[in-house]
Amino acid sequence: MPTMHSPTIPNPSVLIPVHPAIEDYMRGLLSQTDHPVLTAMEKIAQENNFPIVGRLVGVFLETLARTVNARRVFEFGSGYGYSAYWFAKAVGPEGLVICSDGDPLNQEKAGQYLGSAGLWDRVGFHVGLAQEIFARTEGLFDICYNDVDKGDYPEVWRMARNRIRPGGLYIADNVLWHGRVAVEDYVDVVPGWTEAILEHNRLIFNDPEFDTFINPTRDGVIVARRKTT
Question: Is the pTM of this model over 0.90?
């Protein structure tokens, strides 16, 4: 009997979920979202090989946040505020995006960039381990966003899932991990990270309290909505 799923691919040279020409086309549609602060943040990322979600995922995050009328967002891992830019736009002047990062220089850069964009007053930026910062917060969140070290992904999911309000979202970046999740043999960036992402994804898709989907854009973004009934 034929299977409904494609077999795992052994040893591909490159595994790109969305053809680069399609992503170029989609980026071309977003020219109206251009902003000097975004351009500066993206230039710094390119020059320093610093990982950011990029324009397509950024617009996706903002759209998701607006869709659920998010006012309270927690970011596990914020870098210098690129993803926070999109969330801060969405939450509005009365909203709050709680950022976390281990590097105080990233906090300083985020203040400069988001301040220039008129968004810094919507952000609470904390330096330290994201999980520890999250543990010091109280209440529910409209969105918990995960972009920490990949080995910590299962732990972050376990921490965050009960702190998301019904109808709220859990979002995580890099869940396709440059195609490693779909191949038999891979070379990991850090030993154990691919296994952690695989576990993380299984946990979420198997959780009966959440509806879950992966958007394959760039490096894969998982979106899990906490059910309301």
Answer: yes
